Amino acid sequence: MMASPSSPTIPLTCCSSSSSSSFHPSSRRTKFELPAKSQRSPPSLITSRVGAPDSPLSSIAADAASSAGDRVSRRRKLISVAATLPFLLQLRGYVEEGIIADAAELDNDEYTMIKEEVRKVVSKAKAAGVLRLVFHDAGTFEMGENSGGMNGSIVYELERPENAGLKKPVKILEKAKGEVDARRPVSWADMIAVAGAEAVSVCEGPIIPVVLGRLDSMKPDPEGRLPEETLDAFGLKKCFQRKGLSTQELVALSGAHTLGSKGFGNPVVFDNSYYKVLLEKPWMSSAGMSGMIGLPSDRALVEDDQCLRWIEKYANDQNLFFKDFKNAYVKLVNSGARWRSL
């Protein structure tokens, strides 16, 4: 949902071997000593093997012997492979595990480094704008076209009306990204995804783990993909469905509006006040500024039976809200992402 530059709120709507030698039995030549009464060599295969012209019978016998030798050789090779296969598979496993372990260690170091730098620049007062940046980058994802999503393209889209006010959080994260890039390059997509999770944590919300490895887009995403703040509940559900998000995830992610200056409790504390205020429907009152609380899309949620069921659950159980928000956030920042290989 689009917030005006002067009143940062969180997005959702458009405001966002070895081989054996062959063994041939016929190749072993034996010197025969014949009886004294006959010194002639008999017309046998043996004499033909030692120099007599080949006969059809000798060729057939030789071929048969060679074939038998080949079968023995193949069997020996198979036995050799069978004997070494377990070792090779185990070795492969060790190598793969080693690669994965090394990659995980590198990612963990990078993750820690990003979080540390983000914490230096993101305060409670700046958290709402940073979190809104996440929704407006990831919110362009469309399943049908398999495009958009968490790809850092927001840095090319800052002049769009729906992204008004997002230059400031980008500027805030530029400093942290520069510090990280000096040691190991990080994509804008990863930077923004981690920063949003840290913004929630800074404001006393749930700790959200973020996997790294997203690649950045080199061009802006198509326009008109963020949900408009004037949509009713039916329109919102349809819009989120195209992004692969359920009604429950829509309501959980909308809870991000608890941060910012739209009247949902303490603007710098991430809790379930958003849902409690929705149930009170203060905009129905003509007193004071109550009509300014929330966006039209926020108010529409409480008028929908499916959404209302989740609003009531989260209003009564903050831990459930935290759990569901964390899961929905992880799904959101992974949507449409292209990943680097190991």
From TrEMBL:
Domain Plant heme peroxidase family profile: 127-342
GO term, biological process aspect, one: cellular response to oxidative stress
Stretches with biased composition (Low complexity): 1-25
The keyword Ubl conjugation belongs to this UniProt entry's keyword annotation: no
InterPro entries: Ccp1-like, Haem_peroxidase, Haem_peroxidase_sf, Peroxidase_I, Peroxidases_AS, Peroxidases_heam-ligand_BS
Cofactor: heme b
GO function terms (MF aspect): heme binding; L-ascorbate peroxidase activity; metal ion binding
PROSITE patterns linked: PEROXIDASE_1 (PS00435), PEROXIDASE_2 (PS00436), PEROXIDASE_4 (PS50873)
Span list, region Disordered: 1-54
Highest taxon in the source lineage: Eukaryota
Composition-biased stretches (Polar residues): 38-47
Presence of the UniProt keyword ATP-binding in the record: no
Keyword terms of this UniProt record: Heme, Iron, Metal-binding, Oxidoreductase, Peroxidase
EC number: 1.11.1.11
Alphabetized Pfam families for the sequence: peroxidase (PF00141)
Similarity annotation: Belongs to the peroxidase family. Ascorbate peroxidase subfamily.
Name of the featured protein: L-ascorbate peroxidase
Source species taxonomy: Eukaryota, Viridiplantae, Streptophyta, Embryophyta, Tracheophyta
